[in-house]
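Design review, sub-item: ligand-bound model
Attendees: FS, YL, KQ
YL presented the inputs for the 6-O-phosphono-alpha-D-glucopyranose complex:
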Amino acid sequence: MCGIVGYIGDKSPVEVIMTGLHRLEYRGYDSAGVAVVNKDGLGCIKSLGKLKILDAKLEESPLLGQTGIGHTRWATHGVPSEVNSHPHFNVAKTIAVVHNGIIENYYELREQLKATGIEFRSQTDTEVIAHLVDKYYQGDLFAAVKRALKDCEGAYAIGVICKDQPDVLVAARHGSPLIVGLGENEGYIGSDVPAIMKYTRKVMYIENGHVCEITRQGVKVEDVNGNPVQMEVKNIEWDDAAAEKEGYPHFMLKEIHQQAAVLRNTLGGRVHEGSDEVQLTDMNISKDELKACKKIFVVACGTAWHAGMVGKFLIEKFAKVSVELDLASEFRYRDPVIPENSIMIPVSQSGETADTLEAIRIAKSRGAQVAAIVNAVGSSVARESHGVVYQQAGPEIGVASTKAYTSQCMAFALFAIWLGETRGVLSKVEAKELITHLRQIPDKVDEILNNQDKIKELANRPEYRDAVGCFFLGRNVNFPSALEGALKLKEISYIHAEGYAAGEMKHGPIALVTETFPVICIAVKGETYDKMVSNIQEIAARKGLIISVATEGDKSIQAHSKDVIYIPECFEAFSPILVAVPLQLLAYYIAANLGCDVDQPRNLAKSVTVE
Ligand code: G6P
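KQ shared the predicted structure:
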């Protein structure tokens, strides 16, 4: 996702900022920019594309000054372009802002500001911050930012500079990460430790709701109401390689841990604080089209296909529209019958998967409306579809998909509720209740992540770690969880793993179960819990090594299982999002214990752009 770097001090701000932005390149971005305060005012250079283009521009027209901010943008509101890249300015170009995150109420703010005569230059949510700071500026940038942020809802980390106060750099955080770095007569801001670690190892981790005034003399931290906050200074001891991974040994583990925040992002832009209505405006499907829709086609590959299977369940349950789910590589060759008023939902993290793209082209040529669930903004899938729901998961670097999967499931949940309400299948009250359940998911994911000792311990037990093969079983909405759990384990640990619908066990697979064969059984509380327990008993009778994934408080499951991994109680339809997390962790720790190349498993590619 986006990167922020800022500097105040005697070094060249541009040099510090560009070094930092280069260190954040691994996060992915589509454009970049830097602004500096100097005696002539605010200088700024931006560019679309890679940082080397910005480097070349800066070499041609150097930007000199004493305080500056820079940004790499990963588009969320508005296409990737130079105009939409940061920094953004107020009308008089005296205030510059860089921002990570999403201002959820930006549309209302934008309309209010436009009504006062302000003309917006970009399509971004960020630009409202620059105009708001300007509105409240009375000679004190720190005060103006604090006041402006009271009007903003959503998640952000920001850096702000002002032509009239060249000795001040202001930064704030609410939801998106932000650190302040300390040096002798200088100060830094960064969205991430690697951004500034070439220059300093002394950092403050800014917390939600805090605003900082950074000068050469030091750092003042307050909340938006002006109450002072005492901050601890920490010493970063990571080496360079660990820094990009924020101290995690692998990107996959970092991405697993990002999931609660990512899920809040996926939800955030679509269900605003204080409202219980889903808004999927970028889907570009009218209410009439949604009402007329008779059939939905979901196409995807790999992990995204598993998310599609969760999506099928949710759409049929909450919107009562029949869903056909296809592997994109099959859909494109099977001459599908696409009735009138069909909608296709392609699902893709990268947005560049060749088979998924071809499936979209076929569906379009046969008259379907195509609305994609995609992570990579501006990718081919997003461009070729009529509409899109962006997952807002940030770049995923580990080849094995984790945060992209759970955010795809979340996007499907939102779509299903939206469709159900629009079609009159769900009442407002029912939709509201579902949203309440969804809102609890990120905290529950955090809970799982904070209690992973048991999973680590299981992953180090020889009977699981050294197994030659295993099954993952689930039913109903957690059948896809079984498929995804097995895929995660096999792709990174090379242990042969198969996911099955538990009801299928008796039709063949159970022949493989012996006393050395692990079977991971997803048995969370819900409609098919009793059936799942029966399946577990059948496996126990054949002495299979059962690990059950069960709902917190379910003690009886222990009687039939060798081990139990508990997850918090959860509304069943949304439980695949939670179930995914321990299965990802189990796969990760087993693979790491086996010394596998977790982030780049053999033979696999992150994005499959050929057939
Ligand atoms: C590759 C990746 C998987 C991914 C699949 C589909 O196989 O390794 O993690 O699920 O492609 O990719 P997409 O980018 O379309 O989601």
